[in-house]
Amino acid sequence: MFDLVIRGGTVVDGSGRPRYRADVGVRDGRITSIGRITETGTEEVDAEGRFVAPGFIEIHTHMDAQVFWDPLGTCSSWHGITTAVLGNCGFTLAPCAEPDKNLVMRSFERAEDISREAMLEGIAWQWETFPDYLDAVERIGKGINYAGYMGHSALRTYVMGERAFEEPGTEDDVATMCRHLEEAVKAGALGLSTSRTPNHQTSDDRPVPSRQADWSEVRALVNRMGSLGAGMFEIANEQNGEPASRRAYYDRLRDLAVESGRPLSFILGWSPSSPGTTKDYIDLFAEAADRGGRIFGQGHSREFMSIVGFPIHLPFDTLPSWREFRELPLPAQASLLRDPEHRARLVHEASTGPYRTPVGAEARPPDYEALRVLERGDHPVRTVSEVAAARRVEPIDALIDLSLEADFDCFFGQPFANQDMDQVLRILNDPHVVVGGSDSGAHVSQIIDSSIPTFLLSYWVRDRQVFTWEEGIRKLTFDPAMAFGFTDRGLIAEGRAADLVVFDPETVAPDLPHADTDLPAGATRLTQKAVGIDATVVNGQVLLRDGQHTGALPGALLRGPLGRQH
After folding, report:
1. Among 256, 238, 252, 136, which Cα is nearest to 192's?
2. What is the pLDDT of residues 523-534, one digit of tens each?
3. Closest to 201 (Cα-Cα) out of 277, 91, 96
4. What does the pLDDT look like over 415-440, one tens digit per residue?
């Protein structure tokens, strides 16, 4: 008897090869039979009329803290993700002793919009070194699989303390960091992550520690992984405006990939303010490959959007009158917005500003020609300006009226990158790009991007038909599995780990976002579920049926190659 049989579905196996009808049998967490299965399973999933795919892999998350209070790994698991990579952009909770946890929380709090109160209440600190942290993640019950980098910012604060926020590392500092990195990779860390972007600031308006590092420090760390023959390097890129400085930066990335022999990776997007950089990075991938280096981009499947709405943030929250108004409970805000005199004052201030410059995914000053009404989960259609024109009102009034009509369960999205979907497609089509970049676990009240897989399948595969189902599913499964060394996942084949997703190709899509107060300490976050997913299977056990938790927690810690040897 099988532990699980997924019966009567159409298998899209992740390889890119054509789909086929088959049953899938699972024993002891592994796929053991594909074909016609006459034996029964202890548990069965009826997949008639459904696709059966490998579990989706998300290569860029920040669930390092969330894993300790959310066993399901939401919102990622709701969208068919069965494996998530933690610790991107230099932000990890280790190495760090509990008395010094403020040092790492300071980086998470603003740069990644993770509530300090939630972290203080939701994390039972059980580690100091990064190997200790991996052991702690391995011990807890998990719905999905996790693997993780060690973060450069955390490593710097562990070695340098407060100096990490202010100065480059000394020769002794760097040597000590290299030793800790080697220990982490040998224990199973995927590698090292860092940040060079000015978008990453601390809660007290300073650069995060990794931004204070000289490039020689970065180079020493990555080359230490090169000496081990293991470990990846992930970076949140510099943003150099001048072509000459950009070229020098590209050369540093290329040379580091070549000399270290380690793969480099970063999120790749498009912005109208620097349209040439996307082509430059794509050219860089091929240039590095020609010289023996490996660099690949992480491609998002849609716009990067700052999400706003009354239950979370609004662009107007920092304005004096709005600041006082927004401290009131939502029912009181609704009452005042229905008072013509009070509303007029708020509207006037919203129309005149002044607005502060946003950092990262923070709310933008409103551009009503770009600000989308989130009326459907997969792709917003109307802008606030279009709604205002149809109603013959000012855009700010349209935003307020839509919110009141929905009892504030209404959200708006303003793209800040990837605004041109043809450029997004260009990125997704590049052979050196792997789909990813959800930032799940971070920016919890600013953006909602865990839906990368369901958006790609609903928009790019079903609606626009620029990818076949086989191609789209490969981009979410086999390609990231191979890029990150998850050699037993990402493919439906006998002997592989049984991470599987059963979904309806006619309806799979992201659902609309909502605001929930389900974080520790009651902090608010945006959540977004999916439609059209019948079952999500992790290591042979059904984790979710129709989006509902079965009670199983079959997730595992996936260690890097050196960690698997011990």
Report:
1. 256
2. 889 999 999 999
3. 91
4. 988 999 999 999 999 999 999 999 99
CA distance 137 to 152: 19
The C-alpha atoms of residue 332 and residue 335 are separated, in whole angstroms, by: 5
Quote the CA–CA distance of 473 and 160 in Å, as a whole number: 44
Rounded Cα–Cα distance for residues 299 and 461 (Å): 16
Q: How far is 39 from 504, CA to CA, in rounded Å?
A: 25
* Structural contact between residues 20 and 52, judged by C-beta atoms closer than 8 angstroms: no
Where is 265: in which H helix or E strand?
strand 264-268
Query: CA dihedral in degrees (181, 185, 189, 194; nearest 10)?
Result: 40
Q: Is 160 left (phi over 0), alpha (psi -120 to 50) or beta?
A: alpha
pTM for the model stands at 0.95
49, 504 Cβ separation under 8 angstroms: yes
355 contacts 195 by C-beta, under 8 angstroms: no
Quick check: 524 and 445 in contact, CB under 8 A? Answer: yes
CB-neighbour burial class of residue 171 (10 A; exposed 0-12, middle 13-18, buried 19+): exposed
Q: What is the pLDDT of residues 352-378, one digit of tens each?
A: 888 887 777 777 899 999 999 998 877
How many degrees, rounded to 5, is the angle at CA 533 between CA 531 and CA 539? 145
Cα–Cα distance measured from residue 414 to residue 435, given in angstroms and rounded to the nearest whole number: 22
- Alpha-carbon 227 to chain mean position: 30
Is the distance from CB of 130 to CB of 92 less than 8 angstroms?
A: yes
Decide: 477 and 55 in contact? Cβ < 8 Å.
yes
pLDDT digits (tens, 9 = 90+) for 139-172: 999 999 999 999 999 999 999 999 999 999 999 9
Element (H, E) at 473: helix 469-476
Secondary element (H or E) of residue 527? strand 525-531
β-pair type (500-503, 433-435): unpaired
Per-residue burial over 480-506, b if 16 or more Cβ lie within 10 Å, else e, is: bbebbbbeebbbbeeebbbbbbbbebe
Q: Which of 559, 413, 398 is nearest to 485 (CA)?
A: 559
In the numeric block, the tokens 């950089």 are attached to: 277
Q: How far is it, in rounded angstroms, from Cα 525 to Cα 214?
A: 35
Joined together, the tokens standing for residue 379 give 């792709």
3-state secondary structure (DSSP) of residue 518: coil
CA distances from 515 to 50, 205, 448, 449 (A): 30, 27, 11, 14
